[in-house]
Write a structure and sequence with these properties.
With about 260 residues, the protein is an alpha/beta fold. It is built from nine helices and seven strands; from the N terminus they run βαβαβαβααβαβαααβ. The protein has two domains: about 190 residues, 3-Layer(aba) Sandwich (Rossmann fold), CATH 3.40.50; about 35 residues, no CATH class. A seven-stranded parallel beta sheet has the order 3-2-1-4-5-6-7, with helices on both faces. α2 links the parallel β2 and β3. α1 crosses α9, α4 packs across α6 and α5 packs parallel to α6. The longest helix is centred in the middle third of the chain and has 21 residues. The model has no long low-confidence stretch (mean pLDDT about 95).
Length: about 260
């Protein structure tokens, strides 16, 4: 199925690995020119080489910049002032407890998982509206709808992003600019390896047992595959998704128990 986005340009933040890289790979496979981003220039270039190997025809560029800083975002916009597709992604804050969530921690979560995405939307949406095409995907979390106590920082910051994105979406869709959120749960990325290592340390279990415990929390009884996530992202960026905006798509192996 041709998604109708060949020749478009995408900026994918925090895309040297994990969900960001999966989205970049799916978009590159559709003929989209992809800009990868991360803080570590060496790791970023290695990711670009991997993507070029996986998708030989891919047009891939990189920009090493910290999304969480004004200077980093300015560097991104200076190097890539116009894009058709924006995929907002960033690593979440660590698990914690109420006594750890002081003002510094709260501001840090917002500074990583809400503010950068909003500032990039502010920068890119005017051009998208003028060109009558824009696709914005925010990678948030299934915990936006189903909060877990220890992930309170992540939940709160990503929910703030969800709210403002919904507000933006109702204004920009008239110009064929859509804003949607992808809500992953237990996709097999380095983040899940981090969680497995945490379980191993806490419970004295081996790696296989830790991964089994994680998979058991999902109704499908397996971790999601990055390529499944990337394909969902690519479709929402397609010409066929112009009537879908302001939505939260869960990729959670059927685990969400609510109706809406």
């Amino acid at each position: 199925m041709d998604l109708g986005i060949k020749g478009r340009r995408a900026f994918v933040s925090a895309s040297s690995q994990g969900l960001g890289f999966a989205c970049a790979q799916a978009l590159a496979s559709e003929g989209v020119a992809v800009v990868l981003n991360g803080r570590n220039a060496e790791k970023l270039e290695a990711a670009a080489q991997t993507l070029r190997r996986l998708v030989p025809q891919a047009e891939v560029s990189v920009i090493a910049a910290d999304l969480c800083t004004k200077e980093g975002r300015e560097a991104i916009l200076a190097g890539h002032p116009e894009v058709d597709i924006l995929v907002n992604n960033n690593a979440g804050p660590p698990p914690g407890k109420l006594e750890e969530w002081d003002e510094t921690a709260l501001l840090g979560a917002l500074g990583a998982n809400m503010i950068p995405a909003v500032q990039l939307m502010r920068a890119y949406i005017p051009g998208m509206r003028q060109r009558k095409f824009g696709r914005i995907i925010n990678i948030t979390s299934a915990m936006v709808k189903s909060p877990h106590y220890i992930m309170g920082l992540s939940t709160s910051a990503r929910t703030a992003l969800t709210a403002i994105s919904k507000a933006i979406s109702v204004d920009v869709v008239v110009d064929n600019v859509t804003v949607n959120n992808l809500l992953p749960e237990r996709i097999d990325t380095p983040r899940q390896e981090f969680m497995a290592q945490r379980l191993m340390a806490e419970h004295g279990i081996d790696h296989e047992a830790a991964r089994s415990r994680i998979a058991a929390t999902i109704n499908a009884k397996r971790l999601g595959r990055p390529e499944e996530f990337g394909a969902a992202c690519a479709f929402l960026c397609s010409t066929y998704a112009s009537y879908i905006s302001g939505q939260n798509l869960q990729l959670d192996g059927g685990s969400y128990e609510g109706l809406i």
